[in-house]
Amino acid sequence: MHALSSSGAGPSGPRRSGRLDDSQETSGPWLTLAGWTVGLHVPEARVQELLRRSLAGFIVDAPPAGARVSRLEVRSPEVPRAEPATRALPRPSRAEDGALVLEGEDYSARIEAGGARGAVVGAGRFPVEVVLRVMLAAELARRGGLLVHGVALAHDGVAALFTGHSGAGKSTLGGLWMGAGESLLSDELVAIWPEAPGLWRASGTPWNVGFPREARLGAVGTLSWDSSSRWERQGGGETGRMLVHNVLLPEASPAGRAAMMASAGRLLSEVESARLVFSRDASAVTVVRAALGASRHG
Question: I need a surface site. Which of 87, 121, 130, 262 has the fewest CB within 10 A?
Fold first, then answer.
């Protein structure tokens, strides 16, 4: 499993920490991800433009009616730190007041316990996007959902989510699927959550190749290569072992891991578990299309 962190963070939160004033204008943009809306307060025009480009497609003019809304304030550091040559994901930890705190190589952040407010101190768009992922993962966890590193394919309103180790073929499969004119949700991070007993939803996210689309989650599984493509039923235990290594945790603590395991267990008891064995050709699309069509009518 992926903790959204690497070097430990202390409970003090980011430098120049503080809460976003409710009376302060949200300079933009507003984003809607998996039924969750967040308003960014980004005073620096250059960073705001970079974010608008990288998050394009998920930007909305205003929060949808009835949506759960959070805000994230972006602040420039008093003493800029050099951007590192390589980066590691931060490990959020809980402060005494329940807030999540993060400390990256050249940024720091604090997210209030309920997830309604966050502040990040850093330069450029990278720190903002890291904190957005943490906030989204935490929002999904509150619903009993997960933020998963994988590829999600949709056909006729039904989606299949596949996870796997690096090189398993997630991006290749996503490219084959789009090349056949089908609907890709995401090939990097996929948001999933229970909507009702036995009913899960999947949504794309803006990272790497992703689109603001949702579908009913009909299957979750793993990937492997072969010279011919086929869909195989797979035990939930085998799927679960790969799945838990590809969940992005909003909180790398025993409580956070326990909540993740509970959500994964519910998912695997309510959604079909499968393995897609596929080759780099159109047969992969044919196999997935048929399986999702059967799920839709099953």
Answer: 262
